[in-house]
Amino acid sequence: MKRSPKGRLELTWMGKDSALIPVEDGKYDYAWVDPSDPRALEVKSIEVVEQVGEIDGPTGANENLLIVGDSGDALRSLGTIPEYADKYLGQVKLVYIDPPFNTEETFENYADQLEHSIWLTLMRDRISEMGPLLTPDASIWVHLDDGEVHRMRLLLDEAFGADRFVTTIVWQKKTSRDNRAAFSSSQDYILVYALQGAQVWKHARHRLPDMGRFANPDHDPRGPWRSVPMSAQAGHATQSQFYDITTPTGVVHSPPPNRAWTYTKPRFEELLADDLIYWPRNGDGKPRLKKFPTEDDGLVPMTIWLTDEVGGNPDGKRESSALFGEDSVFDTPKPERLLERVVHIATSPGDLVMDFFGGSGTTAAVAHKMGRRWLTVELSQSNADRFITPRLTAVVRGEEPGGITSTSERVAVEELPDGMTAQEAQKFNSLLTKAAKGMDMLDSATLKALRAATKTCDEKTLLWEGGGGFTVSKMGPSMYEVDDEDGQVFLSPTRRTGLGPRPSLGS
To answer: Start and end of every DNA methylase N-4/N-6 domain (predicted)?
Structure first.
């Protein structure tokens, strides 16, 4: 006889029925209290410290917010204080968090060691507090290693429902081998949940651009494109397809030998006027036609993200050292390309991105450069002062050179053979050099001609030049004190102007 399930799967732990309150500002130091304790329900004030850059506009200081303080307090206040609730309730399209991994290590910038029950309650409460801030089509991305990822998945299943699970992404964080370990760990995990479930959310998420073919070196407002040769076989051409073309730099090109231009001169002039002509070699090269991708050209994201696609831990370290110096590198920075992929898949320009474990500010920096609004919370005042505020200030001023500020694209020096991409030409040229060693059948003239026909170079394009702004705020102090003798919680006489506890919302 088949038995019917009597309840859903649930993760339990010591203290699950209790609440946590911060004991010391700026540290992961908490005390257990009853959930009805007014300190666990308190809505603390959010105090503005400064505004950086432009005030108004889609990425101005009125749109982007850095809060220094406990993330649980911050999330509760954002959803309750009217001026913030009006702006943020139901507005967050993407949550990406890189919480403490609980590795039992002590880093320079934070201690990554919490007792399991404290860690679970800490994460459970923040998942609950962030819920009202999410849009109906929001997605939640949680970055962890294998120490806590299995427990976090159960927490998220319990909070949102197991049917809201989308996937687990495996990120190759390094390629070097650790010979001291039983197994050399080379990956982290990113759990992805969507409030609408995977089958609905997949129609809202974006595909990845085919980076081997599409880029946007000239900042075309129509988006990424690729260039294709603008010549055709001469035998099928009309006389009107044979003419000289002068580049923007004054170089005159005739059609390649035994070929004609793809279009007549009037049609070419129309394409030129519509900014559909690309001039390689800094304007000296033969014209190429810009082709824009359709939805079918995009790539469905895969679940394994390799270092050469999105960067690894060493890239994050290099970006951090370039910003803050070799002697002041954040312990666990993530590379900007990793966050760029997350933000691209989950949001569109103008959407709101939230990260309430701010770290060195990578999520906010990437969101800002990509034209998204952002909201980030950082527990440590020291981290905010040392890393996040200076970094985001540099982003606003256009003085932050690393990460996704610029891109490098492989392009052809001359027109490549039909159907060959710049990446294929680069690989061919490299293999040609190896294959030619010891081969007498390839004379030097042939080798030279093959190398010239497939020569490529890197073309760097600046993608971010600065702009926008942000507000720096901090969480206000608690209104409550505790009597040392009997443990009674009472209102501090010097802090009676606070907002107090919020009403209980029930279960």
So the answer is: 92-382
